[in-house]
Specification:
This protein has 301 residues and is an all-alpha fold. It has 3 domains: 81 residues; 83 residues, no CATH class; 116 residues, no CATH class. Helices cover 70% and strands 0% of the residues. It contains 15 helices and no strands. The two termini are 52 Å apart.
Amino acid sequence: MATPGLVESFFSLLPGGAPEEPERRANLARGLEAAWQAARQAWPGIELSSEEFAAYLLSRLTRSEPVEDEIIRLHAADLYLACACQRGDAEAQKALEGLCQQAAAAALRGQDPSGALSAEVAQGLLTRLLSGGADGAGKLGQFQGRAAFRAFLRVAASREALNLRRARRRECPLAEDLLLRLVSEEDPELALWKQRYRQEFKLAFQEVLRSLSPRERNLLSHQVVEDLTLDQIGAMYHVNRSTVCRWLQSIRERLHQATRAALAERLSVTPQDVDSILRLVLSRIDTSLERVLASPVSKET
């Protein structure tokens, strides 16, 4: 028999209640039992109450056929994982991350020798599924359980790869003086150092840019060259402004580390002067990035 909580919860939530006919009622109970057993066997380390699972199964029904027939057609184990992920279960989300990586690799098989694009597609897909919609809600809720979850993810990964490639084609090339723009605000002391060591600054900043990933360079370009808001950048990548904010904060940390190393190596000045220059440069980088990170929510639709 199915766990009492699953059957009772499902029957209590079912519009109109449980089927009156004993045979239909028994068939539905057996279908629920099979769904529960399949889910627990597929994901033994993921905990989800039978009541939560019952409600989630019911939310996926179209009522286009008898409920006992529809239940057995659902991919119950996949829905169990999706439900647990949406409820924030860490083990479930870890399992989903692995499935996203597999889906991205399958979608890009033979097209991504280095694996770099596959990794970026997998991360983007995971973000979009869990929390990356423009409204902050994940797209995982769109999975209805009528097709296998792996097939759903392969289609989503292919779409993610296509969107990523399109976004890259739209992106403007990075100017060689991108980071010089970032620190171009008036500061007499910094202007003096830049005039004296302009070539060294340029080479150092080119080295810094090369240390960033393509997406990090593109995001920096959108912010510095195009002066886009968080919402505008998010619309390009189909993510919310919080995700863009996290990306830019990560870039700031990378810029700090890479700029310190590059300038220290190239400038023939005393350690004290290097520290002075670094403080000036990094403060300008922070000022430029903090301006967009602190921007208000866009009113555009």
